[in-house]
Design a protein that fits this description.
The chain contains 54 helices and 17 strands. The chain is mainly alpha-helical.
């Protein structure tokens, strides 16, 4: 074939202006392809020497000598793309300059995997298959991997009668790779079709078809679970990617239909040469045939006696018939041959001598005679020279290890030479020999030896380990003897069909020898063939003697040559042995690296497999450190693949980049989530990446950056996100479907309008269109990087919360299944990286939101729904808690700075977390705005809690926000506002928000309990005060007394108080809900006497609520109407059910206030209360508040004794007290002076405030009319107490 190629090449060179013929040589092994190309190139160069001068010839001779002195380049011999650097990765990129082309079948198929897709909805599945076939070598199921990882899981019945080789060959060659499979609807034979196959054409499993097919189904299921693919899958994918729409399920009719529409991309070849064709599947041959447009330019070469490769069941007769039928049908668009193909027989063997060739020919004769359907009937093969007959050694059957005396001569320094080899059945036998005798020789299995040749071959125990029983070997001998005399005995039936395969294996073993062949087998199974050969005079039978007489001496150069040969055949362990003896340490390390990779590939357990691949990767890196040029690049590539197989994505990407494999680096950086590195590769090596991969990566990067702070990143024109968004301008929209096109247009709109508000509006539009997945993405863009709200105006915070609430509600609706996101929806698939795979399953793209690194990446639709729900639920929780942490430090939610309020000056503290409004700006509008913000945030949290559920810190977060809401409604600084200022119309979704707070109040009071530590009782009591105050302000049906009455909620007063209901928490609730001042005074006194670490603002609020219950008992006017002429805060008169209180209770209450004032004026305040910063200013504010409350009491009271107590508490000169019942004129004058002082103090404290907290109550009866106290204090005219309550109180209208 090479000389045919050479002749065509020379003919073209002699014709000026002619188009260069495209010649393609395809073989199975990369090294053979390289050697054939080397021979072709040297032949062309030799022909070109005819016109050279003497000087040119001398220079050429010098260069050749230098080249001969160079060490052979050792790169991956199993990688079809490694040895021929510079070959385009796409078939369509090949030019005439690249021909003639010498490649392997793998090299021929990989460049054909181009995008031929018309249906954009199938784009993801196409990439899924491509990734497996081209990039994921670790998923490729070789025979060794099948034996190690799959065979033990298959039917044990098969293992009893058939070996893994026969089973795997039947899977590949018949069920998946035969012509019948090619023409079947699914590309795979179904059970019935397989069972009905001709027993003569496919005899091996004729009697066991159903058992075999059950094993195949188990294999297929296991393969799908592990995400693997085999040689038949690869070939079928080649068809699909070249010619089909790639829509599941895989259908041949779809392939044939697509063939008429999608011609092969790139120019076909003119001449195709295929060597070792018997190692290919029929579907492989069809794939190759489609590359050539010249039906008369096809050349196929092979040896059907050597069809022992997995899946091979080949005959040239079958090949001719298959191609003829396919061409005649015309369905695949290939030219029909104009003449009958010629068969050229190579009957002369140039490798071995006559002694070996005659023995091999006898095996071919047996196959031809008894199984003519399994082999091409050709002329007998002959040798050029005669030679010694093979020697069959007889041994003793009593030996535990056959031929132990024979092999025992080896060991120590005695071993077989570099060109001597022991061939065994399998690796188990090899291990036994080495464990017993040591590393005595190159030992290969039959399958490993195929394609190799040695001077001397020792075929060890071939018959003993045969799958055929002794009875079948005897029947074969009987049939041969009968055939020689009378009519033949038929042994071609299925009971004896395994003999056909065994004879082909025997043929391969025999023909590995060039000079001498030794057969070592003392089993009874060997007797029939030994007798047959002996009767024919083809062998010599000799007794077993010391093997030392057969040892060949080898030089280091011979060991080196043998090492290179074995290395190039992929036999790394044997190559290591040779390089050790050749003293070539660098070559040894290279072979060891590939051996480590081979071990890792065959390792099953995940952790051990990962460690093994890491060890191999590190070995390749060391080899690269010693290499140069293309070899260094190759080793980096090998290291990258090993790191990738070990899931070490970053190292894999690094070494892929060092190997100039930027597509590989892209895949690994994508898995590692390093999108910044992806952008760098896109920017620097865009021309080295296919357009389809570039577009896909661009889309992924856009999605990623849109979720990761796009608004801020876009402001930096040099950022990765900005570069990506600029790149999407180049993505063609014409090939995309409507949904993909709309999504890309969305990203382009984002690039053109980086305004956050514009992005949010787009999200609203998507939501309005019902494209909820895209709406989620748009909102995710908007909220990918939450803003810093620390110093933002409350109106802006409210706008943010309104937007965030819609996002949260959409997420919550999806998680609660109010809105369904189905994996079949292209919007959902694109946004979440869901990829449809075979059999109605889905996978998730690595590095995306849904992908779980250590989970099995194969899901049903229901599984995807569960995974999506789980992940979105976690994302919702994470996002809301992130937002909540930001909100918690926002000034818009905090109280006013006490320093600014007290001094009406700017705060000098840089890190002050409080608001800084001037006193004159504090009004009901600001008060309601802050309350509204708290209600909105609580609603957002509740939307999350309602679908995510209650987690471990749920209660603490609920309690915390109720505390914050309490401080917003019951402001520590009284001029900020109070409960009567609440305007329900100022709250967005007021009914829903208040309803949520009411639910939280009930849950909080249910969970609130004091701890076993008495020192923590005060925290509990403070929470009781806050929750109860919120309940009175917001209303609701919760019966708080029921919960605090529980035994577990009881906080006793102590032994010194003998009370019927000895429960402080119950008294607090009774005081606030039932307006019971007696209980309130007891509880307040307990807090002030025993409390530590209390909330000062809450205690003061509690005191003021008690004070409000006393207003009906003050009688300031001295008239019968108790409320007339009262000067009170509106908060005190919101409820009309105020009791008449005994003077002693009021006196006790004033005693509590005196105690509180003493605490505030002394250092005890810092010990008893947990004070916010700045502590001094806060205490001053509270002190002013308490003074104001005492002044209000003092202004309204007419009791001289109580007035004296109040004056003493305020450190004012007390009035002189005589007869308390009959006050003197001096007493009245003193009371009037005190009232003026109290009023002046109240007005002074309220000076500069915009609030209208105080009111002057005036009865509408003209008899009670009185003058106005102050222009700054409005009058409230009333008929009765209920009338006052209705005018002041504005309860929630829901």
């Amino acid at each position: 074939m090479v000389f045919k190629m050479l002749g065509i090449q020379r003919a073209w060179e002699q014709v000026s202006g002619a188009r260069k013929p495209r010649q393609l040589f395809v073989t199975r092994f990369p090294v053979l392809a390289a050697k054939v190309e080397e021979f072709f190139t040297s032949s062309v160069e030799s022909l070109a020497l005819a016109g050279c001068t003497q000087d040119e010839l001398r220079n050429l001779r010098s260069r050749n000598r230098n080249a001969e002195d160079e060490e052979p380049q050792m790169t991956d011999p199993l990688n079809a793309l490694s040895y021929r650097v510079g070959t385009p990765q796409k078939y369509s990129d090949l030019s005439d300059h690249d021909f003639p082309l010498f490649i392997t079948f793998d090299q021929a198929s990989v460049p054909l995997y181009e995008c031929h897709i018309d249906d954009p909805n199938c784009y993801d599945r196409h990439n899924f298959i491509l990734a497996k076939v081209i990039n994921d070598e670790s998923s490729f199921i070789t025979y060794d991997i099948f034996t190690a990882n799959y065979w033990p899981r298959l039917c044990s019945t098969l293992a009893q009668y058939f070996g893994p080789w026969l089973v795997f060959s039947e899977f590949m060659g018949v069920i998946k790779g035969s012509e019948q499979a090619f023409r079947s609807p699914s590309g795979i034979l179904d059970r019935q079709t397989y069972a009905e196959l001709s027993a003569r054409t496919y005899p091996v499993f004729a009697e066991d078809r159903h058992a075999l097919y059950s094993a195949f189904e188990s294999y297929s299921k296991l393969k799908r679970e592990r995400g693997g693919y085999d040689m038949a899958d690869r070939s079928r994918f080649g068809f699909l990617i070249m010619y089909s729409f790639l829509t599941p399920p895989i259908r041949t009719y779809a392939i044939l239909k697509a063939l008429s529409r999608n011609p092969l991309k790139g120019q076909p070849v003119d001449h195709l040469y295929v060597d070792e064709v018997q190692d290919n599947l029929i579907i492989d041959i069809m794939l190759l045939r489609m590359l050539c447009n010249n039906a008369d330019g096809l050349f196929w070469a092979g040896d059907t006696a050597q069809t022992i490769s997995a899946g091979s069941s080949f005959r040239f007769a079958d090949l001719k018939s298959f191609i003829h039928r396919t061409e005649a049908e015309g369905r695949v668009g290939i030219q029909k041959c104009s003449k009958k193909p010629e068969l050229f027989e190579l009957a002369i063997n140039y490798r071995s001598h006559g002694g070996i060739v005659n023995c091999a020919q006898s095996i071919v004769n047996l196959i031809t005679d008894f199984w003519p359907e399994s082999i091409d009937i050709l002329r007998p093969e002959c040798a050029m020279l005669g030679g010694p007959k093979p020697v069959f050694f007889a041994g003793s059957e009593d030996e535990s290890l056959p031929y132990e005396p024979f092999l025992s001569g080896l060991g120590g320094n005695r071993e077989l030479g570099a060109e001597q080899c022991i061939i065994v059945r399998d690796s188990v036998v090899r291990k036994q020999i080495r464990e017993r005798f040591g590393d005595i020789a190159v030992i290969l299995t039959l399958q490993e030896s195929k394609g190799l040749e040695f001077d001397d071959v020792f075929l060890y125990n071939f018959f003993e380990d045969s799958a055929a029983p002794l009875s079948q070997w005897r029947v074969l001998l009987m049939a041969f003897n009968i055939q020689a005399t009378t009519s033949s005995l038929d042994v071609s039936g299925s009971p004896h069909s395994v003999l056909c395969t065994e004879l082909k294996n025997l043929y391969v073993g025999v023909t590995r020898a060039r000079k001498k062949l030794y057969l070592l087998d003392n089993s009874q199974k060997s007797e029939p063939m030994r007798q047959l050969w002996s009767d024919e005079g083809l062998i010599e039978v000799a007794p077993s003697t010391d093997i030392c007489r057969y040892i060949g001496e080898s030089s280091p150069e011979q060991w080196a040559a043998s090492g290179y040969k074995l290395f190039n055949a992929g036999q790394f362990q044997e190559a290591i042995r040779c390089f050790e003896r050749a003293d070539l340490p660098r070559q040894l390390r290279i072979a060891q690296a590939y051996q480590l990779r081979q071990i890792a590939t065959l390792t099953v357990r995940a952790t051990e497999r990962q460690r093994a691949f890491l060890a191999a990767a590190e070995a390749f890196v060391r080899c690269a450190g010693e290499a140069l040029g293309a070899q260094k690049t190759s080793f980096y590539g090998d290291a990258a693949k090993c790191y990738a197989s070990a899931d070490n994505y970053l190292n894999a990407a690094k070494f892929y980049t060092d190997a100039d494999d930027f597509a590989g680096a892209v895949g690994q950086y994508r898995k590692a989530g390093r999108f910044d590195k992806l952008v760098q590769i896109l920017a620097r090596h865009s021309e080295d990446i296919t357009a389809s991969l570039k577009n896909e990566v661009l889309y992924i990067c856009v999605v990623y950056y849109s979720r990761d702070g796009l608004r801020d990143i876009l402001r930096n024109k040099e950022s990765d996100a900005h570069k990506v968004l600029n790149c999407i301008k180049d993505i063609p929209l014409g090939r995309m479907n409507v949904s993909d096109s709309r999504q890309i247009r969305f990203f382009r709109a984002v690039e053109r309008s980086p305004s956050a508000e514009a992005i949010y509006r787009l999200g609203e539009e998507f939501s309005n269109w019902g494209e909820d997945a895209m709406a989620l993405m748009a909102f995710d863009v908007f909220f990918s990087q939450l803003p810093t709200l620390h110093s933002v105006h409350p109106a802006q915070v409210d706008n943010f919360l309104r937007h965030f609430e819609r996002y949260v509600c959409l997420l919550a609706s999806v998680v609660s299944h109010e809105i369904s996101l189905l994996p079949a929806d292209p919007h959902v698939r694109k946004v979440f990286g869901i990829v449809p795979s075979a059999d109605h399953h889905y996978t998730t793209t690595e590095g995306t939101f849904l992908h779980r690194r250590f989970a099995h990446n194969r899901y049903l639709s229901a599984d995807i729904d569960l995974l999506l729900n789980t992940q979105l639920k976690a994302h919702l929780r994470e996002k809301v808690l992130e937002e909540d942490n930001i909100i918690c430090v926002a000034r818009a939610f905090s109280s006013q700075c006490t320093h600014v309020v007290l001094h009406d000056q700017h705060c000098r503290k840089k890190d002050c977390g409080h608001q800084h409004w001037q006193r004159s700006s504090l009004n009901a509008t600001l008060y309601n705005a802050k309350v509204n913000l708290h209600l909105q945030q609580i609603h957002i949290l509740d939307s999350m809690f309602s679908v995510v559920g209650e987690y471990k810190d749920w209660h603490s977060r609920v309690t915390s926000w109720l505390h914050r809401l309490y401080e917003a409604i019951y402001c520590p600084i009284y001029i900020e506002g109070s409960v009567p200022d609440l305007n329900w119309n100022a709250f967005r979704n007021a009914a829903k928000c208040v309803g949520v707070v009411r639910e939280w109040i009930q849950k909080a009071i249910e969970y609130l309990e004091p701890t076993d530590d008495p020192t923590n009782d005060m925290d509990y009591l403070m929470n009781v005060i806050r929750v109860t105050c919120l309940h009175t302000a917001l209303g609701g049906q919760c019966v708080l007394q029921k919960y605090v009455s529980r035994e577990s909620c009881c906080v006793p007063y102590g032994e010194h108080l003998a009370l019927e209901d000895n429960n402080v928490s119950l008294d607090i609730v009774a005081s606030l809900v039932e307006f019971d001042p007696t209980s309130g005074v007891l509880a307040l006194h307990f807090l002030l006497q025993s409390g530590v670490g209390m909330d000062l603002s809450a205690v003061c609020d509690f005191a003021e609520e008690i004070c409000s219950t006393l207003v009906s008992s003050l009688r300031p006017s001295g008239d019968l109407c108790p409320l007339h002429d009262l000067l009170v805060p509106r908060r005190w008169i919101m409820n009309s059910d105020k009791p008449v209180v005994d003077r002693d209770i009021i006196h006790c209450f004033l005693s509590c206030l005196r105690l509180l004032m003493n605490i505030l004026r002394s250092g005890r305040v810092y010990a008893q209360f947990a004070l916010p910063q700045p502590r001094v200013s806060f205490v001053d504010i509270i002190l002013a508040r308490m003074c104001r409350m005492l002044c209000i009491l003092g202004y309204n009271v007419r009791d001289i004794g109580l007035s004296k107590t109040i004056a003493e508490t305020l450190l004012l000169p007390p009035p002189e007290v005589g007869d308390k019942r009959n006050l003197s004129l001096q007493n009245l004058r003193q009371l009037a002076n005190l009232r003026r002082q109290y009023l002046d103090t109240i007005l002074a404290l309220d000076s500069g405030s915009a609030s209208t907290d105080l009111v002057h109550l005036v009865h509408k009866n003209s008899r009670y009319l009185t003058r106005r106290i102050s222009p700054r204090i409005p009058q409230l005219f009333f008929v009765d107490a209920e009338d006052i309550s209705q005018q002041v109180k504005r309860p929630p209208p829901f």
